[in-house]
Amino acid sequence: xxxxxxxxxRVFVVVTAVVAIVLGVTAIAWPRPSLxxxxxxxxxxxxxxxxxxxxAAARGHGTPTLWxxxxxxxxxxxxxxGLVTLVDPVIPLLVxxxxxxxxFVVEGVASLVGGFVGHPGSSRVPTIVSGVVSVLAGxxxxxxxxxxxxxxxxxxxxxxxxxxAGTLLLLPPRAAVRRW
Length: 180
Hints:
This protein has helices at 3-29, 31-58, 65-87, 90-117, 124-143, 145-170, 174-178. The chain has 180 residues and is mainly α.
């Protein structure tokens, strides 16, 4: 690889690492506003994706009528979901948290059943402990979905800071780049 390509790659790595750190610190300092911004961006995406799907269905000459209708209906539903998100971004966030809480509970119950009934290749005690922890986590998320989202955002922010800092720390010094 020539030195210009190495320098370009190095700049790319440094910029992405710094962006990760800035986003991570932002998520840690302001978890709820960070979630709202993410929800708004996602809402815009849903509106655009839904509108494009409806457009594709309307202009899909030569495609089966069933596909066109299905695509149009799905596109409309996606666009409406995006509009709901843009009107009140907290609603879909809470829906996601509730779905995650339900998922934790269902997974926990499945683990408990597996632990008590037993299935090949697993130990009963760790499976039962995992099931109890999962059910408890699900209940906590269901009781306080907004707090659960904020906690998740803080953990994601910490992960971004760690990954960004780790990337910068593992980057070879400039002198090593010159030797290429």
